[in-house]
Design a protein that fits this description.
With 107 residues, the chain is mainly alpha-helical. Helix content is 32%, strand content 7%.
């Protein structure tokens, strides 16, 4: 225990005289052995958001349809017409549609 206290103290000469382990400003981009492009220039793959795929359904015009909440349980006090009305799907708002287009790029 005393070894660690002496070694890890900020006033220890080992820590104060040490050089930084990694200088990020001098770092060169990595180049793959069989590729002519730098690995920093390669873009990430677009992936769809899995839970959004299950909840929102795109139509041909680019709008998204969703189910309404409030139909699964605790609805015995609702009238039959209200429960039937909740069964219909509705379209999302324009603000939600903009976010969904980012979450579902291939929809």
């Amino acid at each position: 225990m005393s070894f660690f206290r002496t070694f890890l103290r900020p006033s220890s000469s080992i820590i104060s005289n040490s050089q930084p382990l990694l200088n990020l400003s001098l770092r060169q981009p990595q180049i793959n052995a069989f590729s002519t492009t730098s690995s920093t220039l390669i873009k990430q793959k677009l992936k769809s958001h899995s839970s959004s795929k299950k909840r929102f359904f795109p139509n041909a015009s680019g709008m998204f349809k969703r189910a309404q909440a409030g139909k699964s349980h605790l609805n015995t006090a609702f009238s039959a017409s209200k429960v039937n009305r909740l069964a219909k799907g509705v379209y999302v708002t324009n603000t939600q549609a903009k976010k969904l287009k980012k979450l579902l790029p291939f929809a």
